[in-house]
Amino acid sequence: MASAVCDPPCAMPHVSTSVEQLELVVASPWTYAPGEKLYSPIAGPPGGFRCQLRVYPAGTGEVRNAISAFVRVLPPEKNMQGWECKNVRCSIRVMSSIVGKEILKIRTHTFTPRDGRPGRPAEYGFHKLVRLQELTRGSGLLDGDSKVRVRASVSNLPFAKPRNALQIDLSAELQPVRILVPDGPPLIFDQRILVARSEYFQKMFAAECKEASTGVVDLRQDANASHQCVSAMLSFLLTKCLDPDVDLELALALHAIADKFCLRDLREAARCTLKDMLSEENVLHILHQVLDIGGHLEKLCWQMLQADGGLLVRQEDQLDAVIQQTPALAKKLILLGKRKMQKTS
């Protein structure tokens, strides 16, 4: 992945076209002390500008009894001096996992080193995102188990070269990797490309593990890793494009395998494809695959179910399978129906 390199003051030549997603699930935020904070995993391209969500469930201390949330921008190690990220679009929301009411704030902000120290993260956010007294059972902001989701989206983070650029050392010795799949012959791929495109494979082949010594990745026990699916994944690693003729089952398998191998771009491409395919007939099938991961696709599924009160009745033949495969989804569907009954009573 490209590194962001520039001379101070940092006027980055390119900005990201993707959106970094950050999320923290906070259980019973009123049980935290003011000033106590939580951090999300760091997101963003390795070697480039990255971001993180910091949440104070009960306030920063300066402000109490409110959820405070801030987006932090972390500069790459090779670009610590005089950096600046202009016009970064940040959205922070408080919501439950079931689509309902949400608190959403969106701002565009220019990030510079905090306190004038180049290596320090810069941050921007809200001290009073939502008051704790607003987090009642009927607010629509809490899950049934008193959990609240704080989610941030960050776009326009800079990097020096196009995100899709494939950077490999062509002078390095070729090391073919054999990928074993459950339903066909092994697939042979260039280890250099796997390492360049995926942090997961980068760590796999850098570690003292079986795959690093044998050059074999065994996926025969993975139900999603069909010959067709892994072929499509490897093609995407080369081109960063999905075949427009991908069908529903393949898109779902690609989404699952992208999660397994931490291939964020492939996961987003699969979600976009699934969003275009979403219909009354497959909404439950898709929803049980993307449940609780957030994003626009899951939201669209819940909106479809909320908008049509008779949809679940028409899909009754699918409910038995849903209950067996995903009890958590069955519970959320029951809660959704209960809320609808309360609204109509």
UniProtKB/TrEMBL annotation:
Q: Name one Pfam family in it.
A: BTB
Cross-referenced SUPFAM superfamilies: POZ domain, TRAF domain-like
InterPro entries in the cross-refs: BTB/POZ_dom, MATH/TRAF_dom, SKP1/BTB/POZ_sf, TRAF-like
Listed under GO biological process in this entry are: protein catabolic process
Name the domain of life.
Eukaryota
**Which residue intervals define the domain BTB in the entry?**
175-246
Q: What is this protein called?
A: BTB domain-containing protein
